[in-house]
Known about the structure:
binds pyridoxal-5'-phosphate, seven-stranded mixed beta sheet, alpha/beta, 17 helices, transferase, pyridoxal phosphate, 13% strand, PyrdxlP-dep_Trfase, Aminotransferase_I/II_large, aminotransferase
Amino acid sequence: DSVFSNVDRAPEDPILGVTVAYNNDPSPSKLNLGVGAYRTEVVSSAYLLSIFVEGKPLVLDVVRRAEQQLVNDPSRVKEYIPIAGLADFNKLSAKLILGADSPAIQESRVATIQCLSGTGSLRVGAEFLKKHYHQSVIFIPKPTWGNHPKVFNLAGLSVEYYRYYDPATRGLDFQGLLEDLGAAPSGAIVLLHACAHNPTGVDPTPEQWEQIRQLIRSKSLLPFFDSAYQGFASGSLDTDAHSVRTFVADGGECLIAQSYAKNMGLYGERVGALSIVCKSADVASKVESQVKLVVRPMYSSPPIHGASIVATILKSSDMYNDWTIELKGMADRIISMRQQLFEALQAKGTPGDWSHIIKQIGMFTFTGLNKEQVAFMTKEYHIYMTSDGRISMAGLSTKTVPHLVDAIHAAVT
Ligand code: PLP
């Protein structure tokens, strides 16, 4: 008998499990709108090619070029990189999220550490807070990305929720948000999605962000930004960093977890950064020294390849420029899918108000479809999505919109 015979089978991850179920479905018309990963559109002018390029993962052109450059550089070796990661990568990542002219960077008050994508950045930040910050309560939005409570709980923080989404309006429950953060204990940590809130696609307006900022600062709450979609939401890196930058412009402190999974399409390379904006250069350097003590026993030091790609692109004004164009192309395709889906539902006369599809932003639409309707669409139409009715717009294409519309129509009528 195995010494592990008492181990129970764990459930599939609620998000990644959707892909497992999709892979097991033999239907030729199946459609995976579960996981948040970008897929290409059909190239209509290249008819024969289209069967190869439709709905496929995309490696950005600029990423290929950066990799080529790295491969051709004989001086590159595979030595360990420092615990904190590549220095260039860290500097450029802080600049990307905070802005080139950020006083916090000029005053050397930002500690940035290369981490394992967004998830790893959140986890390292949370462990640092547990060890060195006086409050261990973190408020996260309801709902939020399913991994948030698990990451924070495992790091030893205690998780509480603040109201965020109003199912009645399919928009922001701004009053509820202000009330809940207003009632949070002084010093509590607040997790904020920098843009393109997952799963709802609902972001505060700039005016609402300003009110949130004032409340957070007046109550001395500590903002922890999750920036997984910079540039991917609006198509502009600066617009999508607006929320973070207003919190840094006021001189206060905050943490930021950055991911290059979506905006550079580097999902599996696991490249991201944790930045901790402090009041002084002296504090920032001490903070950095302690974050390294979190990393060392966890995974020693981060991987070299993904961060080298990012640094190569961010360093070269040519490549940077090409990246912004490709990024905008991805964002625009998603925005256009929203429009197409909305118009197709209207054309079909599907009952209900679907305007939230074009009001929401980012990778996901929170359709408002319930668990039973989702199960129906999976069973009858082989369409896969998370049970909360979230669909990844990036998994949709002009060709698959009609199939999705038929399924939604049948599910709600
Ligand atoms: N945060 C949010 C809100 C996300 O949606 C995701 C990815 O889906 C992540 C963080 C982390 O992604 P990764 O660890 O792949 O960068």
